[in-house]
Design goal:
By secondary structure, the protein is an alpha/beta fold. The protein contains 16 helices and 13 strands. It has three domains: 139 residues, 3-Layer(aba) Sandwich (Rossmann fold), CATH 3.40.50.11750; 123 residues, Rossmann fold (3-Layer(aba) Sandwich); 38 residues, no CATH class. The protein binds iron/sulfur cluster. Keywords: Iron, Metal-binding.
Length: 377
């Protein structure tokens, strides 16, 4: 298949749905006793709702939405730290647009900008680098945020800054990794997961083998998937086939994009610039060992935490989540967004209480966008 429309072919989707239904019956999946499949990535959550797959699929299949939205898992304290830096008169703080409306404990970046902080939206860390070249008298900080998908581009910007000897560019590094939170979820005795839809974009960078432990140590199938409706349906079918055959393996449905061993150039840039933090705090999941990256000492001059004595290099503030916010439970698959008491009441896209309502990959945003006020009722 060459065109996106072919991956949205209704006849193909119907055929896959029929095969899924047949297998679901065969393994005894029912509405009361469903097979729980976690789609790790928020992009998949949005595709599932955009194409109505949750309604079309056999009632014995339940999608559990995972923690794969990097903006959503950021604790409020990290947003506060961004604002603390942005409020310094010498700083130009740069960020992807996705993070602008995420609430901190008092303000979002958008509100801080309205209050006078010099916060600018960029499309790439290279835009931030260009700002640093053009403003030698200012300190340009880039909000490095995201899973392995965006980690390499931040690394390349740091390498470029080092080559040019730029001294007024730094990165507030909040890059995180996918396998560690999945391990944390699997170690949680209350999680009832039967299989996983693996992230497509992250796997383009890291390949499929970092997930081997999920099949080998926990006996759960994982299928790396694309983002079109037939990609997702085929991936569910592949997970169910493994369950029906009593096996667990890591399989690659998205082979047209995801190389088995990942992207060598990206992996080399990651290895050169970052090292693992001993642990990193996730919203809703707490501290997870080795789940975050920090900038290696060789590139310390580009580490905003070191430069401004903030975050893990400073005195970290204890910041509670907003009262009544169920973001943690939603992000770990324990609660559906519509079950959050704030959904559509204290929390809407216009007045968000949690990041999941404003991020383009947030589960609450997906429910709102494709179910909206109806779901709130
Ligand atoms: S509705 Fe708002 S408060 Fe509730 S889980 Fe979603 S983002 Fe968090």
């Amino acid at each position: 298949m060459k065109f996106a429309s072919e991956f949205r072919d209704p006849a193909l989707a119907k055929g896959l749905l029929a095969e899924i239904a047949k297998l679901a019956e065969q393994i005894g999946a029912t509405r009361e006793k469903p097979v729980h499949i976690m789609e790790i990535c928020g992009g998949h959550t949005h595709s599932i709702f955009r194409y109505g797959l949750d309604k079309l699929i056999h009632e014995g299949i339940e999608f559990i939405h995972g923690p794969g939205c990097p903006v959503c898992v950021l604790p409020r304290a990290r947003v506060d730290e961004c604002i603390e830096m942005a409020e310094r008169p010498e700083v130009i703080f740069t960020t992807f647009g996705d993070a602008m409306r995420v609430p901190g404990s008092k303000l979002s970046l958008l509100q801080a900008k309205a209050a006078g902080a010099d916060i600018r939206m960029v499309y790439s860390p290279l835009d931030a680098l260009e700002l640093a070249r053009r403003n030698p008298g200012r300190e340009v900080v880039f909000f490095g945020l995201g899973f392995e998908t965006t980690t390499p581009s931040t690394a390349l910007a740091i390498q470029q800054a080092a080559r040019e000897g730029l001294t007024n560019f730094s990165v507030f590094c909040n890059h995180i990794t996918v396998p560690e939170p999945i391990k944390a979820l699997l170690d949680d005795p209350y999680m009832m997961l039967d299989g996983f839809i693996g992230p497509g974009h992250v796997s383009m960078v890291i390949g499929i083998h970092p997930y081997d432990f999920i099949a080998q140590d926990y006996g759960k199938p994982l299928v790396v998937a694309g983002f079109e409706p037939t990609d997702l349906l085929q991936s569910v079918l592949m997970v169910l086939r493994q369950i029906a055959e009593g096996r667990a393996a890591v399989e690659n449905q998205y082979a047209r994009v995801v190389p088995e061993h990942g992207n060598k150039v990206s992996l080399a840039a990651i290895a050169d610039v970052y090292e693992r933090r001993p642990s990193f705090e996730w919203r809703g999941l707490g501290e997870i060992d080795a789940s975050g990256l920090r900038i290696r000492p060789a590139y310390r001059a580009y580490d905003a935490e070191e430069k401004f004595g903030i975050g893990y290099a400073g005195k970290r503030a204890e910041v509670e989540e907003a009262e009544g916010c169920a973001c943690g439970a939603v992000m770990t698959g324990r609660m559906k967004p519509v079950a959050c008491p704030q959904f559509g009441k204290g929390c809407t896209p216009e007045m968000p209480l949690g990041a999941l309502m404003v991020s383009s990959e947030g589960a609450c945003a997906a429910y709102w966008q494709y179910g909206g006020a109806r779901a709130a009722e």
